[in-house]
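User: Okay, second chain of the day. Same drill as before: sequence in, structure tokens out.
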Amino acid sequence: MSVAQIAVRKLASFWRLPGFIKLALLPTWVLLGLARLLVLCLPFQALAPRLGQHVGTCVFIPLIPVHLLGRARLIARLIRTTAQYCPWRANCFAQAIAARVWLKVFGIPYALYFGLCKNATQQLSAHAWVCSGPVFVSGGNSFAQFTVVGTFVSDAAMMGSA
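Assistant: Same drill. Structure tokens below.
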């Protein structure tokens, strides 16, 4: 396949994306880069206060109104799509930070989880994921594979639980 054919195919794929994703792709790309830089340069203790309210290790899944489900799903697709086009490694933590930012922008309650598991060679593996109601916005449904060691929730999620 020639470079021109690839470019035409990519452009056609771009035009098929929903308008929200087309508009938010570049800002999200920059956001993923900044999030990756923060993860690499700052200790977790400096990032933690900006992730949401720490609620320990509980599995707290915030309920969201039905009218926000579509937006949460679009944000999930936006994060997945944009992460594919980053020349750097847009790991789960950077994606979780980006998802958290977008969810906060739209006032959608979320919970950001950190989990650990042992792999086949008994080495610890870490993962971060975000969910909002039934929508896994980043990191997929990781509850079965990882033990939750930290949960951060949005202010909107905390107000809904009161």
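The mean pLDDT is 92.

User: Thanks, on to the next one.
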